[in-house]
Amino acid sequence: MINKKLIAIGGVVLLSLIWGVNYPFMKEALLFSSPATFATLRNFFGAIVLFIILILLRKPIATKEMTKLFILGLFQTAGFTGFLIWALVEGGVGKTAILTFTMPMWVAIMAWPLLQEKLTTYQWISVFVCFLGIGFIFDPFNMDNNIRSTCLALASGFSWAIGAILSKRIHHKHPNMDLITMTAWQMLWGSIPLLGIALLLPSQQTTWTPYFLWIVLFNIVFVNAIAYLLWFYALKYLKATLVSMLTFLTPIAAAISAWFLLNEIPNKFETIGFGLILFGLLLLFIYKRPRS
After folding, report:
1. Can you give the residue ranges of every domain in the chain?
2. pTM, whole model, 2 decimals?
3. Is residue 290 pLDDT above 50, yes or no?
């Protein structure tokens, strides 16, 4: 079990870097398609890749827990991805990444009543620091601040946190469920609402350039199929709060990538907010680590 835990920790670090570097490319992809179309492409075909892997490995595709995986997909795939990409339409990459990755804070709060993973006094202080950082990013006295993108990014993080909790509960009740099967179905179910939005709502026409296709392919294979497998593997062998804490590398990688690739520089209040959120998440990780 120790080896599996080490593999899980290494997997979370790897997927965090993949997700972080991908943020600027997701922003670029929205120049060529609508948010719903891009979200549908990366999730639907990511699921198809996993189903092909299941066939090649001769693993069971069917499962009796379709209802649970459908609900998981609504939060883990549709909610998380949908709100995230929508937030990127109007918000900056670094800001969106930081606010999306308030997910560990939401997980820490919800893990108490739902997973019986209690928070200490110091952890509650850490949560307060995160909320203080969110307040700085909102900057309500700045009329030019895009509050909508801020709320969408927070909704993405909250939806992702619910998905993490649901996934952990599924692992507890069904420890023998195949990870590839679980990941493929939740991703497929989660892509259906996104497809409905893409078809029903008026949106820009997709421009199929080689650059856009490369971004879509990278998201399908690495950001979705492989990264989600690493994510659910980690949730199976590590505590939900610890997994969430390890992902704080993602917003750091995203902010650095946005700086180099998109020349995005946060303003004074955003910088203070980013620092407080990352500091709060780091404190949560430090105070959780001895009990993990």
Report:
1. 2-291
2. 0.82
3. no
